[in-house]
Design a protein that fits this description.
Largest sheet: 5 strands, antiparallel
Distance between the termini: 61 Å
Number of helices: 9
Radius of gyration: 21 Å
Amino acid sequence: MNITAFNFKTLMPELIMDALESVGLRIDSGLTALNSYENRVYQFLDEDRKRYVVKFYRPERWSAEQILEEHELSLGLDEAEIPVVPPMRINGSTLLNHEGFRFAVFPSVGGRQFEQDNDEQLEWVGRFIGRIHRHNGEKCFSFRPTISLEEYLYEPRRELEQSTLIAGKQKEAFLRAVDLLIAEVKLYWTEDWHPLRLHGDLHASNILWRDGPMFVDLDDARNGPAVQDLWMLLNGDRTEQQYQLSLLLDAYQEFMDFNPRELALMEPLRAMRMIYYLAWISRRWGDPAFPHSFPWMVDAGFWEQQTVIFTEQVKLLREPPLQLMPSY
C-alpha cells in the first residue's frame, strides 16, 4: 500500500490493537495517549501486565532508512550503557508495519522530571552528553539530515509566507522581522564545526530522572554541531546561563573535547529554532491535534508578539557569545 494515502485520522483504536496483535502483543488495558504532536504515542499493558509504549510515525516525515538510523543510534547507546530507551526487536526488526503505518514498540519507563536548576543533576547530564557525543562521533548519519540554513530558515520562511494563520495586516510586518532575523543569522552562522550524530532536541522535557538521567525521544536526531545538544538546557539571564554552561561543559569535557568556537552558534541556533517552530506548526495545521493544542496561533496579537521577539533576538545575536570559562 502507498503510505501517502494515510494520515492519523485513520489511526483508530481498533487499528492500533490490530497492529500490536500482528506482532504478538495483546492489550490487556490502557492504550493511553501520551503527549506527542509529531507522532502518535500510546502506553498500554499487555496480557502479562507488562507496560509498553507504541509509537506510530507520522507518514511521510521520515523514510524507513532514516527511522532505522535513529533506532541504530539508540541501540548502540544502550549497548554502551548510556541511559536511553531503545526500541524492541520484534520478529528480527525494530521498525514494524501495519496497514501503511510504520511503528515501533518500546519498554515503558518512568521517572521524575529533570531539575534544570539542580547543579548536581546538570553536571550529571553534562557527563552523559559528553559520553553520547564521544560514542556518536564514530560516524555520521547517512540518511538523516545535517542542520542547515535551508531546513531551519529558508524553507520555514517559504512556509510562513504562504501560511493562512497570519492575518494580512500582521503578515507584512512579521515577515520583515523574519527576513531581518535571517539576514542576521547568516552573518554569524558558520559551518566550521565537526558534525556529530546528535539527539537534536535535547531540552529538559526530554530528560527523565531515574537515579540519574534517562534520555528520551530521539525522533529529531540529525548531524550537527555539539553545541546543539547543550544550548537548550540553559535558561535565565546571561549570568545564569554562563554559570550553567560552565557546569555543563566542565562535566562534558571529562569525556569529550569541546570546540569553544561553537559557542558563537548558540544564538543563531536559537533563532533558527524559533523560525522553524512556527513554520512546523503552520505546516501541521491540517492535523486536528494542532489547532486544538495551539489555538493562539490564529490570534493577531500572537504574531505581533512574535514580531517583537524576533526583533529582540537580532539584538541578542549582536552580543558577544558566552565564553568557555577556565577550570581550576
